[in-house]
Amino acid sequence: MTFLKLSFVLFSSLYLAAAGGMFLLQRSLQYFPTHRDPAPDALGLTGVTRQTLTTPDGETLILWYAPPAAGRPVILFLHGNGGEIADRADRFSLYQTQGYGVAFLSWRGYGGSSGKPSESGLLIDAKTAYDHLRAQGTAADHIILVGESLGTGPAVQTAARNPLGALILEAPYSAAVDIARAQYPWLPVGLLMLDQYRSRDHIAQVRAPLLILHGEGDQVIPYPSGKYLFSLAQEPKTFLSLGPIGHEALSDLATWKVEAKFIDRLFP
Fold it and tell me: Is the peptide bond before 67 cis (omega within 30 degrees of 0)?
């Protein structure tokens, strides 16, 4: 065997091994639960009940819920791929101070919830939480769906299939597969990726008022990705730049207050 043939065989073997490893490990590279599940009152939250939901496929989900003040909407919050709802107690508290009802869903495989995360599973989880709010008496036009980072994918698909009062997306992607393709240009990501979250294929079906927030310095989900998704959406829609700031903007009180102003214009 010539040196070139040997080099080709060696390179091909290494490439296939690397691609196979990435395929097998991909969900551990996409979802980062820490499995923390403290009680809401241990984090200083008051007036919050820790509810248990059962999905149609038999998983058990945790939902933190606080009721709205009279006439105010309920925020159904779908968190990103890192950490837990317990890491977002400050956000929960801010929403409460505005008089909103608040429902924080813990994805399957995350704090207190059973199962393992996947795109199909998270879509079931989001719909289960939405249906739970409706069954409790919350009108569809009083549900505000807020998606954070990875949670924007399930949020878009849920909003495309169900009536809402509004949809708010924080640092959304056009599709998770688009982000992965840019990060791993040496892999056939479109063929290998299981959970692609193609929001660009669903955003045009959303009829609720839409707000997209994105930091121009975001290195996790680049700003142009959010702008492109916005370009595909129907009116009424609003895009707001958060300025030269990165993905950390999603943990910033100022970002949540921008959302509150948008919501208050819809529910004066």
Answer: no
Q: CA-CA distance, 168 to 123, in Å (whole number)?
A: 17
The string of DSSP codes covering 9-27 is HHHHHHHHHHHHHHHHHHH
Write down all domains in the chain, each with its CATH number in brackets. 31-266 (3.40.50.1820)
**What backbone phi and psi angles, to 5 degrees, belong to 195?**
-110, 90
Which residue positions in the chain have pLDDT lower than 70?
1, 3-22
Strand, helix or coil for residue 192: helix
User: What pTM does this model have?
Assistant: 0.94
Q: What is the pLDDT of residues 31-89, one digit of tens each?
A: 999 999 999 999 999 999 999 999 999 999 999 999 999 999 999 999 999 999 999 99
User: How far is CA 148 from each of CA 19, 123, 248, rounded to the nearest angstrom?
Assistant: 29, 14, 11
**Are 61 and 106 within 8 A, CB to CB?**
yes
The answer to whether the beta carbons of residues 164 and 144 sit under 8 Å apart is yes
Q: Of the candidates 32, 28, 43, 36, which has an alpha carbon nearest to the alpha carbon of residue 62?
A: 36
